[in-house]
Structures are given as structure tokens and as C-alpha cells.
Amino acid sequence: MSGEAQLEALLEIINTSARQAIAEYKNRGNSVPTLDATEFHPLDFQEDTVALKKAVRLLEGACQQLCATLAPPQHTVINFAQSYDWACTGVAIRARIADILDGHPKGIHVSELAEMVHFEKGKLSRIMRVLASKGCFTEVDTDVFANNRLSLILKSSSNPGCLVRIHAQDVSQGAAVLYETLTEPEYATSYDPDKAPLIYALKKKGLKGSFFDWMKEDDERRESYHRAMIGLGDIMGSLSVLHHYPWDTVSTVCDVGASIGTFSLPLAKKYPHLKITDQDLPEVLVQAKDVWAKDAPEALQGQRVEFIPLNFFEESPVHGKDVYYVSANLYSLLRNIIHDWPDAEAAIILRNVRKALAPHSRLLIHDYVLANVNRKSVAEYMGADVAPEPMLPNFGAGNSRMYQQDLNMWFIHNAKERTLADSIALGSAAGLRLEKVYDLAESAVLEFRLA
Ligand SMILES: C[S@@+](CC[C@H](N)C(=O)[O-])C[C@H]1O[C@@H](n2cnc3c(N)ncnc32)[C@H](O)[C@@H]1O
Questions:
Q1: Domain check: are 340 and 433 in the same one?
Q2: Enzyme catalytic residues
Q3: Do 307 and 347 belong together in one domain?
Q4: What is the mean pLDDT of the chain?
Q5: Residue range of the domain that includes 10
Q6: Are the beta carbons of 439 and 433 closer than 8 angstroms?
Q7: Looking at the domain assignment, is residue 402 inside a domain?
Q8: Tens digit of each residue's pLDDT (9 = 90 or more) over 350-375
Q9: Does residue 407 fall inside a structural domain?
Q10: 312: Cβ below 6 Å to ligand 1?
């Protein structure tokens, strides 16, 4: 394809995919969102967002590719290095700017806002301007800012906001010392969880152990982390799986590393026939029981959910060989778990889960699935979506969150997101065979059974 033909093709993809996204919004809410909207659109927190995410994946990928092709290269590359959006977002969220602006649709002048949060007004105004330039907050009049659909995500009641805060406040500390961890001998070749870049930074402040030891230390930090896990599901559109997996044919689910029921609680609400076992560290299950009592008391009263503490390195989840679970045909679920661990630890978890599976059982691994960026590798995608030419086959910037998440897992845990080939190899070493891939446009569910 000639250079000009490539540009025309990208423009066509942008046009078509934007129209698909518009149609999705109209279908669900009879209206399209605008940048200065002051409420969420009815589609924003729908469970099944596969169609919208497919359109936006093409749109974001093609837009970035078009800009990277047409802008001067020095302009594009400096954009990579000098994006301080995370720092500005971190300030807005820690100072609770979106909470303060709530109930003020006409906005608040930055002088008044600065007084309320005890910042110097000129400095706050520059931060607000950076964010408003990216569409987060609206400058309704000179130096007067109001909330909009994007800034609502930064309210303290928002679960995705909890994840934004973890990135801006904590993960960024790991990112800042990445070079040091690549060069200091003790860290450079290590894949131990307690040699992750964030842990390198936190050790200087007295932390002993790894990320989950740090979580154990502080109830408030842990509560916020588990709310962030609900937010991560919202960001990834993970609840789409409620609509794209045949849950009607399943009777028993063991959610291994279930957090506070981030997935199993909506699952129990949508499929009341399911018997659910939630397993996680004991301190997490204390918080989980409170959440279920508040949000799904009917499941507790109907004894449709049980909570069994588990350390998945030391023992197997509830056993598929137990009479009850064999007859109930146990399905085990690992959502956003394997990506938290380097290969050696991931292999132990999978071996322990495997011991709990009966012949008819399935293990569902729900994570991101990475792909290489050249067209020669497309054969390895094994049925997962491939972007049309001239786009990069892995959708480029259209899938940026999963490649950033791969780095997050490195910074926090010394772990990683995996390609399909990586997951097949990991499963096979634990005696598991991949049966089917459910591509949910951003994340994917890999269905394994005993090999
Ligand atoms: C990234 S979160 C994922 C939570 C949930 N599956 C989800 O998708 O929202 C990882 C979970 O693993 C749990 N976890 C960490 N170490 C564990 C261990 N040794 N045994 C059992 N669970 C553990 C954490 O408490 C946390 O709930």
C-alpha cells in the first residue's frame, strides 16, 4: 500500500469506527456524549461494552497512527516523554477537586478552589488547565472550572478513581526508579516479587516484603485497593463476560483470589442458580463479607455464596474431587491473578488449581492477552482479533492500556501480562490444555481443562 493509500485507509477506519461508536451510544441512551456533559452516559457503566470497545479500539489506534505519521517526529517523541497527566490527575484526586465541584454546575473560580484546598492559586490554575485541555474538567469561564463526564471519575466515591489514585500516587514511584532497578545487580535480573521497582522505592521508606505485605499493613490502603479492583473491571469492561460466556451451563464457581467479590458478586446477581465459593487471603474476606452483606444480602441468605480463606501458594482451592464439587461440576476462575505473578509463582498457583479440577471442570483465566506488533506474528494470535491493514496488527494505541498494564505489573510485582503463547505454555506445564478463547475486545477469557 502506498503512503497516501495508507493515510486514506486510516481516515476510512476512523470514520467508520467513530460512526459505530456513535451508534452504540444512541442505541443505549438515545443521545451521544459531549465533552462538557455533566453526567455519565447510560452506556458508561453498562456490563456489556464489547461492541463499543471494538469500535473505540480501532478509533484510538487509527487516530494515533495517523497523527504519528503526519506530525513531525520530534513533536511525537517529546509527547511520549513529557506527559505529566498522571501527576496533575494525582493532585486533583488527592485534593478532592471533583468532590468540591460537585453540586456547582456553573463552576468555581480557581482562586476560591485554591483557598479551599490550601494551594497557591496560580499553580492550581495551571494544573486545571492541563487537565481541561485533555477534556477532564470544563473551563466554563476564564479560570472557572466545573466537573464534566471525565472528571466525575475522580470523585472519591468512584471505583475507577481508586485505581487512578494508585497509579498516580504509588505505581509512579516504581516507574521513577525503573532505570535503577535495571542497573543495580541485586534487582537487574531478579524476578522476585520483592525486587519490583515499586518495592525498591518503598524499601527506602521502610517496607519489608512485597506488594501484598504492604497491603496487609494498612486497612484503609487495602480497602481502597479492593475498590480499585472493581474499578479495574469497569475500565477493562470485564463484566462483558457475563453476556459472552455460557453461564447457564455452569452450576458451581470458585473465584480464586476473589477480592471483595469484584466479579463473583455481579455474577451471583445475574445468575442466581450459581453456587459460588470466594477464596482470598483471610483479611480480604473480612472486607468481602461486609460488601456482600450490603450489596447482595439475598445471596448470603440463600447460602449461594461461601467464603473460604486460601493462600494459593500453599494449598489448593476447594476441591473438585470432593463429592459435592464433582457432582456440581466446579468451574475455577482466576481473574487478574496470574498477571500479578512472575512465571515461577504463576506456575505454583496453576499447579495448585489444577489439583482441584475434576475431569469436567474448567479453569477460566481472565486477563489481558498481549500480542507482538509485526504482521508476521499474526498466526500466533490464534483467533484473537487482528486489526485491518494498514493498522498495526495489535491495534497499536487502540490497545495501549494492556501494554501499560504489562508495565504496571512489572513495576508493582515484577510480574507481567502474557501473550497467548505464554499462557498456553504456562498452562501446559501445569497439566492444563487451552480449549477456547473468548475475546472481549479488551480483556480475554482463556478456558482451560485438564490436559
Ligand atoms: C489483582 S487482585 C484481583 C482480584 C479479583 N480477582 C479481581 O479480578 O478483581 C489480586 C487478588 O489476589 C489476592 N491474593 C494475593 N496473594 C494471595 C495469596 N497468596 N493467596 C490468595 N489470594 C491472594 C489479593 O488479595 C487480591 O484480591
A1: yes
A2: 339
A3: yes
A4: 94
A5: 3-79
A6: no
A7: no
A8: 999 999 888 888 999 999 999 989 88
A9: no
A10: yes
Are residue 133 and residue 214 in the same domain, yes or no? Answer: no
Single residue among 103, 137, 154 that ends a domain in this structure: 154
Give yes or no for residue 181 CB within 6 A of ligand 1. Answer: no
**Of 118, 145, 116, whose CA–CA distance to 129 is shortest?**
145
d(CA 246, CA 362): 12
Q: What is the pLDDT of residues 69-107, one digit of tens each?
A: 999 999 999 999 999 999 999 999 999 999 999 999 999
Shared domain for 68 and 93, answered yes or no, is no
Q: pLDDT tens across 196-231, in order? A: 999 999 998 888 888 999 998 899 999 999 999 999
Q: Which of 159, 276, 333, 337 has most ligand 1 atoms within 8 Å of CB, for mutation? A: 337
Residue 406 domain-assigned (yes or no):
no
Is 328 a residue whose pLDDT tops 90?
no
- Cβ of 213 closer than 6 Å to ligand 1, yes or no, is no
Q: State in Å: Cα 397 to ligand 1 middle.
A: 28
pLDDT per position as a tens digit, 291-323: 999 999 999 999 999 999 999 999 988 764 444
Domain edge (last residue) among 191, 226, 261: 226
Tell me what pLDDT residue 381 has. 67
Task: Supply the CATH number for residue 258's domain.
Answer: 3.40.50.150
Bridge partner residues of 365 (DSSP):
334, 446
- On whether the pTM is more than 0.70, the answer is yes
Pick the atom of ligand 1 nearest to 238's CA.
8
295 and 368 in one domain?
Answer: yes
The residue behind cell 501480562 is 417
Where does the pLDDT of residue 413 fall: very low under 50, low under 70, confident under 90, or very high at 90 and above? very high
Distance of CA 218 to the CA centre of its chain: 23
- Give the distance (Å) from ligand 1 centre to CA of residue 27: 36
Residues 141 and 180 in one domain: no
Residue 423 reports pLDDT greater than 80: yes
> Which atom of ligand 1 is least distant from the CA of 260?
27
Whether residues 207 and 251 fall in one domain: no
Q: Cα(345) to centroid of ligand 1, in Å?
A: 13
pLDDT for the residue numbered 383: 67
Burial of 204 (C-beta count, 10 Å sphere; 0-12/13-18/19+) = exposed
Q: Which long-range contacts (CB under 8 A, 24 or more apart) does 400-406 make?
A: 400/60, 401/235, 401/236, 401/368, 401/442, 402/368, 402/369, 402/370, 402/442, 402/443, 403/370, 405/339, 405/368, 406/368, 406/370
Residues 343 and 435 placed together within one structural domain of the fold: yes
Quote the ligand 1 centre to 2 CA distance (angstroms).
49
Which residues, 6 or more positions from 96, have their beta carbon under 8 angstroms from its beta carbon? 117, 156
Instruction: Count how many domains the chain has.
Output: 4
